[in-house]
Amino acid sequence: MIKEVNDITYLNSLSDYKVTLNPFNKIIGYYINDLLVAFLDYSVMYEKIEINYIFVVNEYRRKNIAYNLIKYIIDNYKFDNITLEVNINNINAINLYKKLGFKVISIRKNYYDGIDGYLMEVKYDYFSN
Known about the structure:
7 strands, about 25% helix
């Protein structure tokens, strides 16, 4: 089950990433038997969505959970585009994003502690064809 997460205390204990709340920020969680096993932190600014962070607990990875979280956003918002950054060495994540229609639109030099990052984007038009 996917639902909005309002209590960030537990989220901040799951990974090194620290969730912060602001008027544009939203967080959805993926629950299995009432246990939060993944979350997606994203920002909605007018018709643009930016995925800030996605996390899946190790034992639940490679079960389409991250795919379902991103697909939830795609299916529940009207947007011009969705963007995200990803480490160029994170091949599994890059392949997931490409499966969802994201394309590399730029390289961010040294974005991840000296390692380049891809800026990826999917446009709403991709889903209306």
